[in-house]
Protein: Ferritin
Organism: Paragonimus westermani
Amino acid sequence: MQTARVNYTEESEHSINKAIELHKQAAHTYDHLAATCATEEISMPGFCKFFRLCSQRQRRLAEHWINYQTMRGGKVHVPEVRPLEDLSGLYRQKLDNLVEMALGVEEKIEHHLRQLHRIAVSADDVAMREYIEKKLSLPQLHVIRMMVNHVNGVRVSGNDYLYDRTTMLPLVKKLRRELTR
């Protein structure tokens, strides 16, 4: 029987499955953050919509990795998906803590991308290395920078409501326009 598996190690396959799991967990976490921002207690529609977009992005990245895994001849195995962060007491958190939690999610994903890249380099897997370098690393760094800017913006503004209305709602509209192109 023929296989598409060429220079694709078990370690690479396992790490890709971990990446799929990580992105699905991140999407789950972002769904909880969005729901929290939609509650009466917090009521931040800009952040709610922003976290929903982040969740969609994570789902899309998980789908990309699933397609990559099957293209390389690997098998997709993802255990039960749980949120990346501890979400107990989420509704009692302040907005800057929620945005910090989102930053932590993105940093975990970036860390795993670096691990994947190291595995690709050590296995001399040019295809995986280039895929990570050209398609994933730079956008991930941009997302981390955006999250850092929002953590700092919420803290410096001193007014969560104003920051949500003047920064997040216009940003979400802009991002949606970009995504529909």
